[in-house]
Specification:
The protein is an alpha/beta fold. The protein has 3 domains: about 1-125, no CATH class; about 135-260, Rossmann fold (3-Layer(aba) Sandwich), CATH 3.40.50.720; about 275-455 and about 490-525 and about 565-635, 3-Layer(aba) Sandwich (Rossmann fold), CATH 3.40.50. The chain has 22 helices and 22 strands. A 9-stranded mixed sheet has the order 10-9-8-11-12-13-18-22-21, with helices on both faces. It has a 7-stranded mixed sheet with strand order 3-4-2-1-5-6-7. Strand 21 (about 575) and strand 22 (about 580-585) form a beta hairpin. The termini are far apart.
Length: about 625
């Protein structure tokens, strides 16, 4: 049925183009010589139609959609008209007819262009007339923000929406060179930097819109946050337009649905350039294992590693459901990748050793850990057994089976730790540092690369999903302390930089402190106050903090700090020369000493001796000031 309708429409196009071409013949004759008979000889009229239809075949003239006619379509019409006029003139010369004037072929071509192009333009204009219709009186007033190209698509999509639910007041463009110009009748009021002045002027004219609509999805980070801040100052809602690809489909006009701006967009930063070729050379064809593969970091590592074509990708986790989820996803997105899914607990040394001896991975990405500070405070033995002893099990098994490199995912909580979680991760860092120094002394020694960074947006147990759940329930949003602040980064950016650090570490790049157990630290930008994050999420939901949604302060929890640190006071950040990557130089220790201490802690954990295990941990990490009940964190800050 659909094919029949399509053929019918093509037939209508052929008939219309042929009829207009036939009519253009006497018109062109009359324009060339008004005194002559425009209708002689009569058989030249259908000849004009045939000439045009033949000329239009290579340009697919009759396949055009008139209601979507654009500049490219009019160029096709012009080419068809020129070729059609030339064919007509050639045919009449073969028939022995003389043209009224020498200029007739050019007049004929112009007549054809006008006869074929004008109906297309008029039809397109009439179909687009909703662009110039006044929206309903109850339509929401909006101000568009973004590039003029995306704004043009949005306004056109709005024209196809019969509801006419929005009235466009104007546009804030990405560039200040476009101020004062118009797009489809809507004025460009200024640039993004002019948001405050433009909104002030609209307020003075009593034309302040109710909503700012961001039409460019690439607009993120600081520029987006600055405009959102101005919108909040004037009490405006902010929304995101559908992606341009969704708006640009002429065959499927759909209602224009605005969506909330994601908090990730506000905190996101421009992507730093990464050595993708180096990553491919590192991973392609190799046996790679990812521990903690079901977690937020581990699953993203699995995704990005799979994209580089490893020989075998081994996914290891102790959670069945999380492991099943990432395996199912990779089966759909990277079916060609050979995968193995293994349920194992890294605290089980024999199980870990058996896995490594069987599969002999060449690259190890160690993301498995217990990372939730209050949870580890409530279960300290489990935290130490996993984060310290478990890391040693993985590192020893990797080194014992000849792995090229192991990459440890660490945390900013390991710096000047106040929690068991942070101190146990610092101990894991120390062991990997020691192994890396030892590995450098041997031609075939294993590199042990440590990468430290802060919070990942949207990760399991993090604050953003918590706030989202609390918002969905109508509040309140719970914040532990008004001054608490954290570093944030998107998981995709963090993992990309982890892989970049892996390339540098394995290739033996000349890096400051690299020979002395230096630790890679991701450039996290500026820290964010958690209460400000809560307020932003409330505003992005179209609500007002404290009026619609309460923010409640609950006090610091055991192990928490007000301020996280990426560097110890005695290890200032050192640039590496690679965007997004810094290096720290924390103290190192003899691997045998650290291994023996971890073994003692592991034994205490197995024996249920909490006090002994914490004492041993504090002996290895002298800067560990345990915030047992939450009060010490505020005093320390």
């Amino acid at each position: 049925m659909a094919a029949t309708r399509s053929l019918l429409r093509i037939a209508v196009n052929v008939a219309l183009d042929g009829g207009l071409a036939a009519l253009s013949v006497p018109v062109a004759h009359w324009l060339a010589d008004p005194a002559a008979s425009a209708w002689y000889p009569l058989y030249t009229i259908p000849l004009g139609a045939v000439a045009l239809l033949l000329a239009g075949i290579p340009f697919r003239l009759s396949l055009q959609y008139w209601r979507f006619a654009a500049i490219g379509d009019l160029l096709t019409v012009a080419a068809s008209a020129a070729l059609g006029a030339a064919l007509f003139t050639g045919a009449t010369m073969v028939a022995g007819l003389t043209e009224p004037t020498l200029a007739f072929p050019f007049i004929h071509a112009l007549t054809l262009l006008l006869a074929l192009g004008a109906p297309r333009v008029i039809y397109r204009w009439r179909r687009g007339r909703p662009l110039n219709k006044a929206p309903h009186l109850d339509a929401a007033s909006i101000l568009l923000v973004g590039s003029i190209e995306d704004a043009d698509l949005f306004i056109r999509a709005l024209a196809q929406d019969r509801r006419q639910a929005f009235r466009v007041e104007g546009l804030l463009a990405s560039s200040d060179r476009q101020t004062g110009r118009r797009i489809q009748g809507h004025r460009i009021l200024g640039s993004l930097n002019d948001a405050a002045a433009v909104l002030t002027q609209l307020q003075a004219e009593d034309r302040l819109p109710g909503t700012l609509v961001f039409v460019t999805p690439e607009l993120s980070g600081t520029r987006l946050a600055q405009v959102v801040a101005q919108a909040d100052r004037f009490g405006l809602q902010v929304r995101q337009a559908p992606r341009p690809t969704a708006l640009a489909d002429p065959d499927k006009p759909r209602p224009v649905e605005l969506r909330p701006v994601a908090i990730e967009d506000l905190l996101n930063r421009p992507q730093v350039p990464l050595d993708r070729d180096g990553m491919a050379r590192l991973i392609q064809g190799r046996r790679v294992i990812v521990t903690g593969a079901g977690g937020t970091i581990g699953s993203e590592l699995a995704r990005q590693v799979a994209a580089f074509g490893p020989g075998t990708l081994i996914l290891l986790d102790n959670g069945e459901y999380a492991l099943w989820q990432i395996d199912l996803e990779l089966a759909e997105t990277h079916p060609q990748t050979v995968r193995k899914t293994l349920i194992a607990d890294i605290r089980d040394e024999a199980r870990v050793r058996a896995i490594f001896e069987e599969h002999r991975p060449e690259l190890v990405f160690h993301a498995a850990a217990l990372k939730h500070v209050p949870m580890v405070e409530a279960n300290p033995l489990e935290g130490m057994a996993t984060n310290a002893a478990g890391t040693r099990h993985v590192a020893d098994a990797a080194r014992g089976t000849g792995a090229l490199a192991m990459v440890l995912i660490s945390t900013d909580k390991a710096v000047n730790p106040t929690s068991v979680m942070g101190a146990s991760k610092r101990l894991a860092e120390m062991y990997c540092q020691a192994l890396d120094i030892a590995g450098r002394s041997s031609p075939h020694g294993m590199r042990c690369i440590t990468v430290r960074f802060g919070n990942v947006l949207g990760s399991t147990g993090s604050v953003v999903p918590l706030f989202q759940r609390q918002l969905a329930r109508g509040g309140p949003l719970t914040v532990t302390h008004p001054d608490m602040q954290r570093y944030f980064m998107t998981v995709r950016e963090a993992v990309g930089l982890v892989l970049q650090a892996s390339v540098l570490g394995v290739n033996g790049a000349s890096l400051p402190s690299g020979e002395n157990g230096g630790i890679f630290v991701l450039d996290m930008g500026e820290p964010v106050k958690i209460v400000d994050l809560a307020r932003q999420m409330i505003r992005l939901a179209g609500l007002q903090p404290e009026q619609d949604i309460e923010i409640r302060f609950t006090g610091l929890r055991p192990g928490e700090k007000l301020y996280e640190e990426l560097f110890h006071g005695k290890e200032p950040p050192v640039p590496t020369g690679y965007p997004g990557l810094l290096m720290a130089s924390p103290r190192t220790a003899d691997p045998a000493i650290v291994a023996r201490a971890i073994e003692e802690i592991g034994s205490a954990c197995r024996g249920g001796q909490v006090k002994l295990a914490l004492t041993l941990l504090g002996r290895l990490i002298p800067e560990f000031e345990h915030n047992i009940d939450g009060t010490a964190g505020e005093v320390r800050a």
